[in-house]
Design brief:
The complex is a heterodimer of chains A (114) and B (110). Chain A has strands at residues 4-7, 10-13, 19-25, 31-37, 44-51, 54-57, 64-70, 73-78, 87-94, 103-105, 109-113. Chain A has 114 residues and is mainly β. In chain A, strands 2, 4, 5, 6, 9, 10 and 11 form a seven-stranded mixed beta sheet that branches. In chain A, strands 1-3-8-7 form a four-stranded antiparallel beta sheet, with no helix packed on it. In chain A, a hairpin with a 6-residue loop joins strand 4 (31-37) and strand 5 (44-51). Chain A is globular and about 35 Å long. Helices cover 0% and strands 58% of the residues of chain B. Chain B has strands at 4-7, 10-14, 19-25, 31-37, 43-49, 52-56, 59-64, 69-74, 83-90, 98-100, 104-109. In chain B, a hairpin with a 4-residue loop joins strand 7 and strand 8 (69-74). Chain B starts with a strand and ends with a strand. The chains are: A mainly beta (114), B mainly beta (110). At the A-B interface, strand 5, strand 9 and strand 10 of A face strand 4, strand 5, strand 9 and strand 10 of B.
Chain lengths: 114, 110
């Protein structure tokens, strides 16, 4: 979807290195989310943001941090990458909280930690 | 037990068949979403439901709030429908977070 872009699309990194994934939106949506997708699991929420500088943890936030200094950008940082963080990461945006509004997903970032 | 359960996990159909994928949930929700993911691809939103039924082309989604159950139907299936179909629910909190099922892998054979 042209309104949301994730970068990079693929990355291989070494254990112990920091990694930052970027989600950029052009829709001016308030809510942004980072999910990870692993075999046998549904998408799981890592962190989310409900406005500039307003972020909160999801269900699998250990080892991850986020920042949102502008409406359009939501960064996910793996502070010291581990093999268990090998996954596909999806960013999503939503216009309003409280339900009944659609989501748009990015194309995903495939991260391999070796 | 997962809060969102999908069945079947895997489904193989012949081209032209009518397909049904089911989603049951155990929590109160404000909306339910059906999503599609092609192999190696991104995730596309198909439907968002809070009641009743929606139709888009050959796809139909229904929801029964009292029974906490939703179905996604595909009529006249085609090989290009082969994908993972994911059910997700919104709890209705101010943060608008989704809870996902593990998906149904559909393969439509010509």
């Amino acid at each position: 979807d042209a309104g949301i872009t994730q970068s990079p699309r693929h990355k291989v990194t070494e254990t112990g290195t920091p990694v930052t994934l970027r989600c950029h939106q052009t829709e001016n949506h308030r809510y942004m989310y980072w999910y990870r997708q692993d075999p046998g699991h549904g998408l799981r929420l890592i962190h989310y943001s409900y406005g500039v500088k307003d972020t909160d943890k999801g269900e699998v936030s250990d080892g991850y941090s986020v920042s949102r200094s502008k409406t359009e950008d939501f960064l996910l940082t793996l502070e010291s990458a581990t093999s268990s963080q090998t996954s596909v990461y999806f960013c999503a945006i939503s216009e309003y909280g409280g339900g009944n509004y659609g989501y748009t997903f990015g194309s995903g970032t495939r991260l391999t930690v070796v | 037990k997962n809060e969102v359960e999908q069945s079947p996990q895997n489904l193989t159909a012949q081209e032209g068949e009518f397909i049904t994928i089911n989603c049951s949930y155990s929590v109160g929700i404000s909306a339910l979403h059906w999503l599609q993911q092609h192999p190696g691809g991104g995730i596309v939103s198909l439907f968002m439901l809070s009641s009743g039924k929606k139709k888009h082309g050959r796809l139909i989604a229904t929801i029964n709030i009292q029974e906490k159950h939703s179905s996604l139907h595909i009529t006249a299936s085609h090989p290009r429908d082969s994908a993972v179909y994911i059910c997700a629910v919104e709890r209705g909190s101010a943060t608008n977070k989704l809870i996902f099922g593990t998906g149904t892998l559909l393969a439509v054979q010509p």
